[in-house]
């Protein structure tokens, strides 16, 4: 009775976001690996946002904002010693940016700003010239420009509304690169390709694809898979490093991933790999619902009894249990399990609990990742 029921319920998914990821797929090397010498670099700086309409820092609560403002004005030749400003049109912000690899001086990058004080909104403000430094303490870029804020807030005497974040924003193309990175691409003799998803099968397949290309072009192998993440490529003597990288990154390889089930308990999303297997297991799921209803009754005293009106409590409790059916499941993948349980009324949180129980029982032949 159970097997025909589950077979009729296959393919129907209700209330659950389900994705089945293929285990083997063709992809270019540039899509699955990155160049070790071409990594990004993080920049950070401290600056001021001006031009706010009364939504900036209160200078008494944020003394560093007032100090920064006075220092900036003194550098511009304005003496503010002994004076205090009460205007709330200035906010201290932390400025961050990502310096892309091989970036040249004069090119522009986006920057992100976030409030450090008690400012309520950065909308309409402009970032004043701010230097951005790297981990070595050297200045690599200078940022300035109008801050774009996607969130908004509005309030009145009795109500307020807010959507998104108003104390953080971006300055598109707001930073100009002033210093070139010390390492250059053609200074390195070899190439190191790092897999974004480490896997020995993918690394070996990548090395084999590069060696097949090198055998036809240069007459011998040039790639070696050192581990599950790194593939080393030796530069041939008569090859140009940039052209070699352009040819390698467009080679198509077969990627492989381990069997994995990813569960997001907050949203109820389950992502399942194609190679996931389930051993034969019996599953039973039942839910207990307890409903408590309070219906107090007002009791009036008898006429001329000099009594008082009283409230008599009245509580109604109903307990209801659903489910409890035992199903024997044994399938090549989890689509049968999720579709069957989802179709007979099990909610996403119940399916997540069942998957965790199957993993604990040793019947789920995959890695279970909880987010």
UniProtKB/TrEMBL annotation:
GO terms for molecular function: structural molecule activity. Keywords: Bacterial flagellum, Cell projection, Cilium, Flagellum, Periplasm, Signal. Residues 1-25 form the signal peptide. Belongs to the FlgI family. The basal body constitutes a major portion of the flagellar organelle and consists of four rings (L,P,S, and M) mounted on a central rod. It comes from Mycoplana dimorpha. GO terms for cellular component: bacterial-type flagellum basal body, distal rod, P ring; outer membrane-bounded periplasmic space. This is Flagellar P-ring protein. GO terms for biological process: bacterial-type flagellum-dependent cell motility. It is found in: Bacterial flagellum basal body.
